[in-house]
Structure formats: structure tokens, C-alpha cells
Write a structure and sequence with these properties.
By secondary structure, the protein is an alpha/beta fold. It contains nine helices and eight strands. The mean pLDDT is 97. The structure holds nickel (II) ion.
């Protein structure tokens, strides 16, 4: 399996990536896409990817971190693309759940568009974080086409919106939330989308799947997401592994 979105660069794990990777490998995870959320975590993601053959880095400024970002952070992100094993820009997007203020939301949109432009200039895919702003997100992507497509990380939208993102060249990322009893939409989406349009993720240390909800998430729990998706799509866990792995590799590694 491939964990298409995790934060080994988070303070929870960044002190000992080797231990994290070994534990997850024993649970069947072979590759890790370590995703940045600000300048510091992007640099740590690159550092981890350089030292560990199983890891790749995505770099970028998360919408909730934009208001605290330095004036030149996006320029530095663009500089860092030259580093080895940087395979995408992320996580970038909109988060209206945590930011209700209109000025901050405008700032988020502007930074999102700037980072899409950086991705296009360097021919890289992107990883999108979108919470409570899915209409605006879709509109931005329609106006600013992403050449290499990307992942809608932790997809929580409707079946109709899913089709629109897929049409724009995106695949949908699913993690621990698919195991939650009260999550309805992701289950509907997973039952209907084509096999070339989804990937597995943990978002570790966040969004821990059942039955481990409440403790920090870890890529070693990715099999719980795989199993749930197999159940929802009525296929074998091995088939889920094959399909999702092919989708991540097509997007980032080919
Ligand atoms: Ni994340």
C-alpha cells in the first residue's frame, strides 16, 4: 500500500522517522508521501524524503497557516522545488471551517491560486485541503486548470461534486473518516467512482480510523481504510491495493 498523505514531518513523529517507517512497513505500507503545511514542515518533509528511500515530499502552505506565513514563504517554497524527491505542491487550498473572517478567506484564495501557478510552472501535481469551501475550491480549479492534476485530500463532498473534480484531473483521497459511523457522503462516493479515481491516505497523526479513534493516527493503520473501501466497493482488499497504488504512481511517480 501507499500512504498518499501523511505527516511524518509533524512534531509527533519527526524526531524518529525511521521507527515510524519500519512500523508501517510491517503493516504493509511501502511508500509514504510526506505533506508539508508550512515552510518549516515542508523543509522537514524534504529532509525525511532525502534520508528515506520509501518517502517523497510535497511542499506548500496550508490555508490555515497562510495568515502566519512570512512575506517570502511562497518564493522560498518555489526555490525548494529544486530539492530531490519533491513530487508535488501541498497541502494547499481553503479552510473556511477554522477561518470565518472574509479578509482571511480572500488571503487563502490568493495563496491557493499562487501555489497552483507555481505547480503549473514546474509541472507538478497538487494536494488539496478543502474544508467548508468546496464551491469556491471548484470554481478556482475551473478558472486555474492544474496541468498535472492532483489529489482532493480527505474528500468529504457529494457524488456530483466528486464527478466534477475527477473531470478536472483529480483523484479523491480517502482516510480514517470512511470508518466513522456518521460519515455518509464518502461512503456513497466510494461506492460509485471509477477505479482510477481514488487513493488511500491516513493524514497521520490526524483522523485515526476506528477502532483506534482517540489516539494519534499512524500509517500502520492504513489497512483499516483499505479494508473499509474494499467492503464499500465490494471488491477484495488486494484489488483496492492494486487500484489505489496504480493511481498514486500515475500521479506522482511516472
Ligand atoms: Ni494533512
Amino acid at each position: 500500500m501507499i500512504d498518499s498523505h501523511c505527516h511524518i514531518n509533524d512534531k509527533e513523529y519527526s524526531d524518529n522517522p525511521s521507527e515510524y517507517i519500519n512500523e508501517a512497513k510491517q503493516a504493509g505500507v511501502e511508500k509514504f508521501f510526506v505533506v508539508g503545511f508550512d515552510l518549516k514542515s515542508s523543509r522537514i518533509a524534504i529532509d525525511i524524503a532525502k534520508k528515506h528511500p520509501e518517502c517523497y515530499a510535497l511542499i506548500g502552505i496550508h490555508p490555515s497557516d497562510i495568515k502566519n506565513a512570512g512575506e517570502h514563504d511562497l518564493e522560498i517554497i518555489e526555490e525548494l522545488i529544486k530539492e530531490p524527491k519533491v513530487v508535488g505542491i501541498g497541502e494547499i487550498g481553503l479552510d473556511y471551517y477554522w477561518d470565518k473572517d472574509e479578509t482571511v478567506r480572500e488571503q487563502q484564495k490568493e495563496a491557493f491560486i499562487k501555489q497552483i501557478e507555481i505547480a503549473n510552472k514546474h509541472n507538478l501535481p497538487i494536494s488539496i485541503h478543502c474544508r467548508d469551501g468546496i464551491e469556491d475550491c471548484l470554481n478556482i480549479l475551473k478558472e486555474h486548470k492544474v496541468n498535472k492534476g492532483g489529489i482532493m485530500h480527505c474528500y468529504a463532498g457529494s457524488v456530483e461534486t466528486a464527478k466534477e473534480f475527477i473531470k478536472l484531473g483529480f483523484v479523491l483521497g480517502f482516510g480514517g473518516t470512511v470508518t466513522f459511523k456518521n460519515s455518509v457522503k464518502p461512503k456513497e462516493v466510494l461506492a460509485t467512482i471509477p477505479q482510477n479515481s481514488y487513493v488511500l491516505e491516513t493524514d497521520a497523526p490526524y483522523l485515526t480510523p476506528e477502532p483506534y479513534r482517540g489516539r494519534p493516527n499512524h500509517s500502520k493503520y492504513l489497512y483499516l481504510v483499505r479494508n473499509k473501501i474494499a467492503e464499500l466497493r465490494n471488491i477484495s482488499p488486494e484489488q483496492v491495493e492494486m487500484e489505489s497504488t496504480a493511481n498514486v504512481e500515475r500521479l506522482f511517480l511516472l
